[in-house]
Queue: 2 jobs
Job 1
Amino acid sequence: MTDVVAEVPHFRMYIDGDWVDTEERYELINPANENLWATSARGSVEHADAAVAAAAAAHKRGDWRNMPPEERAAVMSRMVEILNERMDDLVDLHVAENGVTVRQAMAFHVGYSISHLQYFADLARTYAFEVPGPLLGYPTMAAGVTRREPIGVVAGIVPWNFPMLLAVWKLGPALAAGNCIVIKADEKTPATLLEVARAAHEAGLPPGVLNVITGEGEEVGRRLSVHPDVRKIAFTGSTAVGRLIAQQASENIKKVTLELGGKGPNIVLPDADIDVAVDGALFAFCLYQGQACESGTRLLLPDSLHDEFVAKMIARAKQIKVGDPTSFDTDMGPIISAEQKSRIESYIELGPKEGATVAFQGEVPDGPGHWVPVTILTDVTNDMRVAQEEIFGPVLCVLRYRDVQEAIDIANDSDYGLSAGVWSEDLDAAMDVARQIDSGTVWINDWHMVNALYPFGGFKQSGIGRELGPHALDEYTEAKFVHVDMSRTLDRRVYDLVLPAQEG
Ligand code: NAD
């Protein structure tokens, strides 16, 4: 719920169906102009505990988990209607909180969030929560049933790059399956996620079923990942923190879903349509200023196309307009924070020291705002740190390859395995390459098209588990086998293994 304090909006946390404030507050800074645009509550370990207690009480009460799935779906669909009505406000909030451009916010950050929430509502209607299995004839005559039941209290920890979408990927399947959930927003970006909580409140979600808290990762995030009453934790963010969370979660053998970093290899095959692939390669690493985990940041070009492709890409990159994200004319906005900006700049400086060439750097606005130019590094080899480490900015590494097998080997020579791309006019050839890449997603002649109907997640150190598609609900349920004896007599062949014969 929003108040207006000192002329800027103030966001409170949502715990047990109530709006909770704190004395200590975060100042939320607009990355495009460095102005204070809002404040938010700053949650503590006590708030994490209160939110988990509310979720545990709601789970025990059982009104949500025992509600027929189609009724849960109806509440979630009401949330979707409310969010749709507030689309314009959500877009404005999103642009202010993380600097995404208004066009991208409409399509991706907010548009995907709402449509993906609808997907999970629909999934609740069709998911097989109880499936009778084959009759069991031996050793006893029995019927078997497989049930998928909610896990209980789930916690989600989300980053700043897609704060609403990545929260929907957690609360969507959690709610559809009948769980109760606590989500911690990133310190910098609580606003749109708290609007999702407001929609849930107005849609009639029972208190405690969804709780949204704020706070420091090492304090509040850590508490959620060690909390004994949290049965599952779902995290999106850096691989370093993901590793910590997996360790912390092992305390009480929590289930863990991790969606971590990436270094997406983008392979252009020699027969690709160059003009299409050039735009595709730029789109792959420039969406949201390259601050997307599944960006295409390693461009693999055959020697035969390299020079022409790079020249065409530079010509197109020069046309990208970086600036005010609220303007419909702007193609790219700012970087989230001064800290992230200097991290990206340190990689741009590192590139030439490792032997790369800065083939292109774009224009950025003067004045306040965290601006980093579109940067294309050529002469990159895969052993360089710029090719192996996630830069998380608009920086592309261009690598050459001699034959397709070498391209596949380079693509797979990475600790990450989140996303990849192949560009070719020959779909059989592209599919053949797609099969050989160790990656959770491979786009052929496209990029960033994350589809709610299909699984999303990483091979190798890019993560554990999958967030979208029908199997997302498997990750938020426990499987239970129920055996129903049909013979009504104790089967002596089996019981005699343990018990002496009954007398009489
Ligand atoms: P981060 O991993 O530090 O933070 C993500 C979330 O985890 C935040 O909500 C944070 O509060 C929380 N967190 C931090 N420490 C925690 C802990 N010890 N226990 C529990 N929760 C904790 O990400 P960042 O610092 O915002 O960004 C750093 C780098 O992470 C980026 O440069 C990028 O490489 C990567 N990143 C990846 C993604 C992604 O979508 N995969 C998103 C954001 C950042």
Job 2
Amino acid sequence: MENIAKNIEKDLDEVRSLEDLERVRITYLGRKSFLSENLRLLGKMTPEERKEQGPKLQAIKEHITRTLDEKKYALEQTSFDWKKDALDISLPGKKSPIGHFHPITQTIREIEDIFISMGFDIADGPEIENEFYNFDALNFPKNHPARDMQDAYWLSEKNEKGEKLLPRTHTSSVQVRYMQENTPPFRIIIPGKIFRHEPTDASHEHTFHQFEALVVGDDVNVAHFKYIAQEFFSSFFDTAIEIRLRPSFFPFTEPSFEFDISCAVCEGKGCSVCKRTGWIEVGGAGMVNQEVFVLAGYKENFYRGFAWGFGVERLAMMKYKIDDIRLFHSGDLRFIRQF
Ligand code: DAH
């Protein structure tokens, strides 16, 4: 062991290049080296001998390997070849592409900023939801056709409580989740991804986004709702936006409305985006049905609130003049990079 250590030291002193080093490596670790020969002998030894000799040979091998590695490192540090290794600082640099957030993420952040400035909190909930929060808690009667208003994908597996599961069909699924954890007054928006079992075309997707609003207090009424919505849209589109409510039906609101805004593209004059009507439907809204408060565990007729669920893609398409909703999920970088 000592001999080998001394010899390798001497031999390495004379090493000037990686080629020299390779020769030394072969001498000490190669197939014909002293070490390899002894390692081969191990097989012919009695178990007792092997137990004694094995670790010793292993230690020698480790010592040699480490010494060679150290020398290699030292050589690499000092062997600088001006022709090969010099850095030409006049060469143009390689530009790393800089990424950015997806236009939908950007739009959601813009929406959040506006609501935060109006004192809202941001809430969220799971994308895979159980039947209760997506339907029952929102006062959808069992087996009621209103459940088909939103064609759901259903998962084949149930959760550990035996509840049916689905990718949520709307952000309204977070309403009762939030109310179970919080006491009014509060005002929140819930931006999120939702899923519908629907054929796709330029204005329909199976996967898109909504932002739900839920404002609950002692004396919340439709005037508050109209005011806040108008403030939001005018700020989002940076121009005065008019809003229009049309009577509608949702089991979780009473009264319920379809919610339109004046077309931000043509300012209500009529264009292809608003199909010449001057108005664009952005979602549903209404005063929270007292049944929903009860299902959330609140006292009946104690609070009043409004809620809406508006489509994010719609707004982004209008603001950025995008004519096909499928572009958002296309993964097409030529589209994404424009934002
Ligand atoms: N969840 C409804 C949908 O996706 C939209 C909606 C309507 C949400 C009325 C609301 C509401 O909060 O009050 O079709």
